[in-house]
Amino acid sequence: MLRSRLYLLAAAVLWSTAGAAVKLSTLSAWQLASGRSLIAALVLALAIPAGRRLPSRRGLAASVAYAVTVVSFIIANKLTTSANAIFLQDTAPLYVLLLSPLLLRERPSRSELAAVPVFLLGLSLFFLDQLNPGQFWGNMIALGSGLTFALCILGLRAVGDEGSSVLVWGNFIAGVSVLLPALEGPKPTPVDIGLLVFLGVFQLGMAYSLFQRGLRETPAVEASLLILLEPVLNPVWAFLFAGERPGPWALVGGTIILLATAWRTLLGGRAGNESPADKAPTHGST
Predict the structure, then answer these.
(1) pLDDT above 70 covers what percent of the chain?
(2) Where are the transmembrane segments (predicted)?
(3) DSSP structure string for 144-156
(4) Sign of the CA dihedral 274, 117, 259, 100?
(5) Rounded Cα gap, residues 183 and 211, in angstroms
(6) Which residue from 3, 98, 178, 221 has the highest number of Cβ atoms inside 10 Å of its Cβ?
(7) CB neighbours of 274 closer than 8 A, spacing ≥ 6?
């Protein structure tokens, strides 16, 4: 059990390095997005042989949502602070809450609905800091990546065992879809190449491999809480290595979103431990 928890923490630490690496690189967003995903697709295909199979139609839809998520996250990191990018993408649970009745026929409980205003409050605080035009559009793209990440989560839940195929082909689609504009970017330096390899091999590829291992022996609730280390560390690395300081309102908003996510995860775990008779009046899901 200890080893599985360490796998999850290692995955969260690797994921959290994206912001600093993107800020340190002189490559364009297109170059980073394409190179990172193509390298990650190769690493995942080698690490998870089952992922090489072509996905079904539903799996393909989830792969496209994943591809849009990873590309838009890189673009957002280039246009706004890494803290804003990761915290706004982590609004995905809110969209899952709103869309699951439509896409999965699962109705939210009253406590889940009560969480919506808390998420919206934290979200709104990101736009109170003084923003230049780039930061505003970066925040909007990051917000959109939260929606596509939610669609990816819903898609992965719907396809079940096809999850590895979604990740492999999602990264492949992401890399190929922006390959053309990536060819017109600045000439990479040795540092850029090193950062790109790090992002593809470790920050995406190895991180998802570790995450999958950790989930085998760790309860979902505990796993969800452990990987909340990612949005906490992301702005820390960006500050230490790239000198980027997030705005005060972004920090407050991010803290609210993190606390709300942890609160919802704990409540969800308690609901999962209830008997069917206890859960029926509240959830009513099929």
Answers:
(1) 78
(2) 29-48, 60-79, 85-104, 111-128, 140-159, 166-183, 189-211, 223-243, 249-267
(3) HHHHHHHHHHHHH
(4) positive
(5) 32
(6) 178
(7) none
Sequence-distant (≥ 6) Cβ neighbours of residue 195 within 8 angstroms: 21, 24, 25, 27
Q: Check if the beta carbon of residue 202 is closer than 8 Å to that of residue 13.
A: no
Looking at residue 118, its pLDDT comes to 76
Mean pLDDT across 233-259: 81
Structure token digits, residue 166: 């979604």
Which is it for the CA torsion 179, 184, 185, 191, positive or negative?
A: positive
Q: Are 14 and 203 in contact (CB under 8 A)?
A: yes
- Which residue type, as a one-letter code, is found at position 108? P
- Structural contact between residues 92 and 153, judged by C-beta atoms closer than 8 angstroms: yes
pLDDT digits (tens, 9 = 90+) for 21-37: 998 999 999 999 999 99
pLDDT grade, residue 273 (50/70/90)?
very low
Helical pair 2-16 and 207-215, crossing angle rounded to 10 deg: 150
CA distances from 250 to 91, 128, 147, 242 (A): 13, 8, 19, 18
Q: Please give the residue that has the higher pLDDT: either 215 or 251.
A: 251
Sorted by sequence, the CB contacts under 8 Å of residue 85 that are 6+ apart come out as 19, 73, 76, 77, 138, 142, 145
* Residue pair 248/127 in contact by the 8 Å Cβ criterion: no
Predicted TM-score of the model (pTM): 0.76
Residue partners of 271: CB distance under 8 A and separation at least 6: 109, 111, 279, 282, 283
Identity of the amino acid at 144: G
